[in-house]
Amino acid sequence: MAEEAANKARGYKSTLSNPNTSDEAKQHAKEVLENELGEGDVKLSDEGGKDPGNVARGLKAAINNPNVSEEGKKSAQEKLDNM
């Protein structure tokens, strides 16, 4: 039962962050989260930071991707060097 509520909450939270969703649908999702699912303050993103290992892997992938511009590769390398 708790898993079902968590899945519903995830769906409503994704509605809030989806740019293709109408304002009316977003308002409904926010109301459901606040009232029915007891989420209180609705957060659009998780509070934890990004996993540094995943970030580094993504930057390395961008550096080696032939579809990324030289400017993008340079930016990715700078970010990787600053980690």
From TrEMBL:
Q: Where is the composition biased (Basic and acidic residues)?
A: 23-33, 40-50, 70-83
Region (Disordered) location: 1-83
What InterPro entries does the database record attribute to this sequence?
Conidiation-specific_6, UPF0654_domain
Entry's Gene Ontology cellular component terms: cytoplasm
Q: Which PANTHER family match?
A: PROTEIN CON-6, PUTATIVE (AFU_ORTHOLOGUE AFUA_4G03615)-RELATED, UPF0654 PROTEIN C11D3.01C-RELATED
- What name does UniProt use for this protein? Conidiation-specific protein 6
